[in-house]
Specification:
Strand content: under 5%
Radius of gyration: 17 Å
Largest sheet: 2 strands, antiparallel
Number of domains: 1
Length: about 150
Amino acid sequence: MELLEFAFRIGAALLAGLFIGMEREIHNKNAGLKTNALVSLGAAVFVLTSLAFAGDDYVDTTRVIGQVVTGIGFIGAGVILHKGTIVRGLTTAATVWCSAGAGCLAAIGQYAELSVLVAVIVFVNVVFNPVDKFIAKLFGHKGDDKVDD
């Protein structure tokens, strides 16, 4: 892979992570701008590294994507806090997981799909928070056992 193509792909991953992390940062969440940007960037670098071996004997480049999915679970688990019946950080953990997916898309050059994914992630995090609160109010949920993260 040419250096320029490598730079473009990791740049796309970085921008995707920054856009995803911006909403988390604005709402002062544990994993914000830098975390999502670095997760997306890291996922892209691992996938790009595996692509360097594409075509070699006994090489399955898709296995790295599977390992990214598994590995990012550890970071996601680190942002989830549980105290009694209160759980915080689930949305942030899911957002970090999606940032890794964005990095994978950037690495394989699926830029249109990457743009759609970023838009959907930001949409879900911005629009569904008030919807979630409205539903809780509508059905009389006290919110003691569910805290928006």
